Amino acid sequence: MNLQQLRYLCAVVDHGLNVSDAAEALFTSQPGISKQIRQLEDELGLTVFVRQGKRLAALTPAGEVVVATARRAMREVANLKRVAEEFRGEDTGTLSIATTHTQARYTLPKVIGTFMKRYPDVRLSLRQGTPQGCAVMVALGQADLAICTETADEPADVVAVPCYLLKRSVVTPLRHPLTRIRPLTLEALARFPVITYEDGFNGRRVVDETFAQAGLAPRVILSAVDADVSKAYVEMGLGIAILASVAVDPRRDAGLRRLDASHLFRPSCLSAMVRRGMYLRRYMTHFIEMFAPHVGAADIERALAGGRLDRMRRNLPTL
Q1: Helices 109-118 and 282-291 sit at what angle, rounded to 10 degrees?
Q2: What letter does residue 183 receive in the DSSP assignment?
Q3: How far apart are CA 62 and CA 226, in angstroms?
Q4: Residues 159, 164, 168, 152: what is their CA dihedral angle, to the nearest 10 degrees?
Q5: Are 146 and 272 in contact (CB under 8 A)?
Q6: N or C: which end of the chain has fewer CB within 10 A?
């Protein structure tokens, strides 16, 4: 048994049991991966995959356990490398951040700029997705950390460190009937076509739940992962948008009005997500501290250790 076999095994599972896709991602050959997996099965004396002809159809019950164990082994190997790099005193390495469009566009640019000046030898990459997708990337080791709103069903291997509360705003054209309504109400919003986040975003879930609890059914005409796309259609007069308040910049969005809706929709918790058991390089912890200066290394360590974060959540600043 060797690490290459475990790496191939995890890659095949991560690519939906498609050996060709896994081989392409790993820059190797399909026969090579198949051979290594067969050798692993022979050494373990069990079948990892259910096969239909030459195709891998599913994991066997034993295979589920083997893959979970292989993932833990690969994580510990990665931890060993990080420990060695840290104790050599080198501020070099990589940092992969999974995040949503809103955070990549509005809350992270200044942080990333500051980080890159402080750690010029760290190669930083951004991967965008839905909050659930970002959490999965962290769980699978495809990203070192995620900056996104918490999800309803986070992977068990992911720890969310709460950083901010995200308020909601209604975005309209400059001269829109809603700009004259005080206070803003759900009934008033429901009279207009709505543009908001697509399913899979905490913001969409909050909007749907809030209207449903009020017995209202808004007409959602467009859903998108990109807040800038939503605002473009608002400018065209196609509807109103319900977005995170940070996604509206008064200087850049001079043709739009932002109406505070924090009294209508509960805020979402914006978190830094890391994989449970992961050894965090100092620069990784420092990135989180740059993003949320009120979150300290002790808070991150407490979260990773499974400590309660109720007090921390109650005192979060808002964005």
Answers
A1: 140
A2: S
A3: 41
A4: 10
A5: yes
A6: N
CA gap 273, 144 in Å, rounded: 9
Tokens of 222: 């467009």
Q: Where do runs of H (alpha helix) occur along the chain?
A: 3-14, 19-26, 30-44, 61-87, 101-102, 109-118, 131-139, 186-189, 202-213, 227-235, 282-291, 297-304, 310-314
Structure tokens at 163: 């950083």
Let me know: does 99 contact 146? Beta carbons within 8 Å: yes
Give the orientation angle of helix 30-44 with respect to helix 3-14, to 10 degrees: 110
Blockwise average pLDDT, block size 10, the chain, 319 residues = 85 88 87 88 89 88 88 77 69 91 94 95 93 90 91 82 95 94 95 90 91 93 90 94 93 93 94 87 92 88 76 83
- Do 271 and 149 form a contact (C-beta atoms < 8 A)? yes
Judge contact between 275 and 157, C-beta under 8 A. Answer: yes
First to last CA, the chain: 50
Q: How far apart are CA 299 and CA 278, in angstroms?
A: 15
Helix (H) / strand (E) containing 147: strand 145-149
> How far is Cα 133 from Cα 153, in angstroms, rounded to an integer?
11
Of 157, 160, 28, 3, the closest CA to residue 80 belongs to: 3
Q: Which of 156, 146, 161 is nearest to 299 (CA)?
A: 161
Angle between helices 297-304 and 282-291 (to 10 degrees): 110
Residue indicated by tokens 């022979």 = 42
Structure tokens at 117: 């000046």
Q: What is the pLDDT of residue 314?
A: 77
| Alpha-carbon span 198 to 137, nearest angstrom | 19
Question: What tokens were used for 196?
Answer: 């908001």
Residue 236 sits at φ, ψ, to 5 deg, of: -80, -10
d(CA 95, CA 108): 14
Query: In sequence order, what are the residues at sequence separation of 6 or more whose Cβ sits closer than 8 angstroms to the Cβ of residue 36?
Result: 4, 5, 8
Whether the CB-CB separation of 201 and 128 falls below 8 Å is answered with: no
Query: Contact at 8 Å (CB) between 246 and 166?
Result: yes
